[in-house]
């Protein structure tokens, strides 16, 4: 196209846009080095007068950052592994096996993606807290101290299956030749072995996409983690812990601390994303153009 | 595929599917039914014996003439979804059109996508600082050019738009991603042929790019509109209860606060259902539009 004649205008517009996209992140990083008194001062400046590292030290002390970090990592890893397993199992069955009810189940899986998340907060909160036979509950889900939410399970189990994941894996596994499965069967391989040793290795690109997608998604998830934290405050994840710090103490004093916490919570994920963005983008495109 | 016995295959399939079906039963099917039952009761969410059946009272309350749910909350929900989509779509059309012609396309795309992989808690808090009436950058800019400072989030006529601006900013990256994929799908020959015929840049854009991008555009617009109707985390972080008054309150946030701040699980579930039906109708319209608009396999 003829736009090549005026590329500098394109670069200019894109650069202005880049500043608008990145500025809030810079503001977050620089203000995490401002002292509380400078932060509440009348005039704004992007850069702190002197770089103060105290916020990070205090954030570590007041936030129980190591607990938050541990919870966030355990939760994200567990959800990611579970979703990889359930999605590839479901995807394999729906792509390669013939059985009555297959079309119905596939339609059902697709339709689960249409249900809005907010519909489930209320009933699933009750179901999770009153889950039978866990967290001290009896068979009727009563008498315990939090049901699934008595442990990390409350943060993990309600996210163990993803309709999007099953769909993604099915589309990918459909393209694998049936001959691989048939010859493995002729060689006498068991069905579990076919799945784990023949199919799974071939789906690594799709698994990578799904993994990065789920890891970032569950790292950032906020509302459910907030609800679980209200049952059991040992379950706070990074976003929840930081937000709680803010609402409890004097806002003007804690704001730079909050910024320091947010830097710790977001920057590792942003770096992870930049390194693996190829896989992430592929998943988004697939979602967009299925 | 050569079958190794339909019965054996069926047993195998269902034994692989058991965990998934069990999960969906516990965390999707039962909850939807349970949620509808709750919406017909008055309940604080404690033990099941304390539930009192009230029929359609909660729905009547929601649709009563003095109810705040229809106006301003549901109106706000639509304004919020419409405003965010409009902002992010217009920006994303420009950005995706430009970056497919620039070097370092992947880099630009990633930069515009950064907010989408950042937790809303961070986004909300940073923008609270940017909007801060005394020491935020926006008011620093306004006062330095001689304007009066604006209390973005305390002024009921501005607050909703202040949150919408952040939500629009947040949505640009996702739309850019899908639109650039759509743009790449348009064969290059079309443009070459058009150039040979003497069609200029704008002519090419309106006669080739826009019509061929139509399915992608439809997809972006409708899915992000539906997403916007469901969204409430940003509003929760930035204004907590949807204040001042109800000026920034949206449907899902009101449902959340009714249940988890005020303990009105019945009313909250009825609200969730009303909002769900609204979204469901729009989703159905989407399916019809997509089938007609040529988005494949819907």
Automatic annotation (TrEMBL), chain A:
Protein keywords: Cell membrane, Membrane, Transmembrane, Transmembrane helix, Transport
Stretches that traverse the bilayer: 12-33, 73-95, 104-127, 147-173, 194-216, 257-276
Cellular compartment(s): Cell membrane
Annotated CDD domains: TM_PBP2 (cd06261)
Residues annotated as domain ABC transmembrane type-1: 69-276
Primary location class: membrane
InterPro entries per UniProt: MetI-like, MetI-like_sf
PROSITE patterns according to UniProt: ABC_TM1
Keyword set includes Transmembrane helix: yes
UniProt-listed Gene3D superfamilies: MetI-like
Protein name: Carbohydrate ABC transporter permease
Organism: Paenibacillus mendelii
Automatic annotation (TrEMBL), chain B:
Domain of life: Bacteria
All residue ranges annotated as the ABC transmembrane type-1 domain in the record: 74-286
Keyword line: Cell membrane, Membrane, Transmembrane, Transmembrane helix, Transport
PROSITE patterns reported for this sequence: ABC_TM1
Localisation: Cell membrane
Xref: InterPro entries: ABC_transporter_permease, MetI-like, MetI-like_sf
Membrane topology: Multi-pass membrane protein
One Pfam family in the UniProt entry: BPD_transp_1
Transmembrane regions listed in the UniProt entry: 12-38, 78-99, 111-130, 158-179, 217-238, 265-290
Main location class: membrane
Family annotation (SUPFAM superfamilies): MetI-like (SSF161098)
Protein family membership: Belongs to the binding-protein-dependent transport system permease family.
Protein name in UniProt: Carbohydrate ABC transporter permease
Organism ancestry: Bacteria, Bacillati, Bacillota, Bacilli, Bacillales
């Amino acid at each position: 196209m003829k736009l090549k004649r005026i590329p500098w205008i394109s670069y200019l517009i894109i650069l202005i846009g880049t500043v608008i996209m990145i500025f809030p992140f810079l503001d977050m990083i620089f203000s995490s080095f401002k002292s509380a008194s400078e932060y509440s001062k009348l005039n704004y400046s992007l850069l702190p007068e002197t770089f103060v590292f105290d916020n990070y030290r205090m954030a570590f002390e007041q936030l129980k950052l190591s607990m938050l970090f541990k919870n966030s990592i355990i939760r994200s890893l567990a959800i990611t592994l579970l979703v990889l397993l359930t999605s590839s199992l479901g995807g394999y069955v729906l792509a390669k096996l013939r059985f009555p009810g297959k079309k119905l189940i596939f339609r059902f899986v697709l339709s689960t993606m249409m249900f809005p998340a907010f519909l489930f907060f209320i009933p699933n909160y009750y179901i999770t807290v009153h889950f039978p036979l866990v967290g001290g509950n009896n068979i009727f889900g009563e008498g315990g101290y939090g049901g699934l939410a008595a442990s990390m399970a409350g943060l993990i189990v309600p996210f163990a299956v993803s309709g999007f994941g099953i769909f993604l894996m099915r589309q990918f596994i459909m393209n694998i030749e049936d001959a691989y499965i048939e010859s493995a069967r002729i060689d006498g391989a068991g069905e579990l072995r076919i799945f784990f040793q023949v199919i799974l290795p071939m789906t690594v690109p799709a698994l990578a996409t799904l993994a990065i997608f789920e890891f970032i998604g569950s790292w950032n998830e906020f509302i459910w983690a907030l609800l679980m934290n209200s049952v059991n405050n040992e379950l706070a994840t990074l976003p929840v812990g930081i937000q709680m710090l803010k609402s409890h103490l004097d806002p003007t004093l804690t704001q730079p601390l909050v910024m320091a916490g947010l830097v710790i919570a977001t920057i590792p994920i942003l770096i992870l994303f930049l390194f693996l963005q190829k896989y992430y983008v592929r998943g988004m495109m697939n979602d967009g153009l299925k | 595929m050569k079958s190794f016995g339909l019965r054996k295959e069926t047993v195998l399939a269902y034994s692989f599917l058991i965990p998934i079906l069990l999960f969906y039963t516990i965390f999707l099917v039962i909850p939807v039914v349970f949620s509808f039952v709750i919406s017909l009761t008055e309940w604080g969410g404690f033990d099941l014996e304390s539930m009192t059946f009230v029929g359609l009272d909660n729905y009547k309350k929601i649709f009563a003439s003095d109810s705040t749910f229809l106006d301003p909350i549901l109106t706000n929900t639509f304004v919020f979804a419409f405003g965010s989509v409009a902002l992010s779509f217009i920006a994303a059309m420009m950005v995706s059109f430009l970056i497919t012609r620039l070097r370092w396309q992947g880099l630009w795309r990633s930069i515009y996508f950064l907010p989408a992989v950042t937790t809303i808690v961070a986004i909300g808090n940073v923008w609270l600082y940017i909007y801060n009436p005394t020491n935020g950058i926006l008011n620093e800019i306004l006062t330095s050019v001689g304007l009066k400072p604006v209390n973005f989030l305390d002024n009921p006529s501005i607050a909703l738009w202040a949150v919408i601006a952040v939500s629009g900013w947040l949505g640009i990256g996702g739309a850019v991603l899908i639109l650039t994929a759509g743009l790449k799908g348009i064969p290059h020959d079309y443009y070459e042929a058009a150039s040979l015929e003497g069609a200029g840049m704008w002519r090419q854009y309106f006669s080739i790019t826009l019509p061929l991008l139509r399915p992608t555009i439809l997809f972006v617009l409708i899915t992000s509109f539906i997403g916007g109707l469901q969204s409430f985390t940003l509003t929760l972080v930035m204004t907590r209860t949807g204040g001042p008054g109800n000026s920034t309150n949206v449907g899902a946030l009101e449902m959340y606060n009714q249940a988890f701040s005020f303990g009105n699980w019945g009313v909250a579930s009825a609200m969730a259902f009303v909002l769900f039906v609204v979204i469901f109708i729009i989703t159905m319209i989407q399916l019809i539009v997509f089938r007609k608009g040529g988005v494949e396999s819907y």
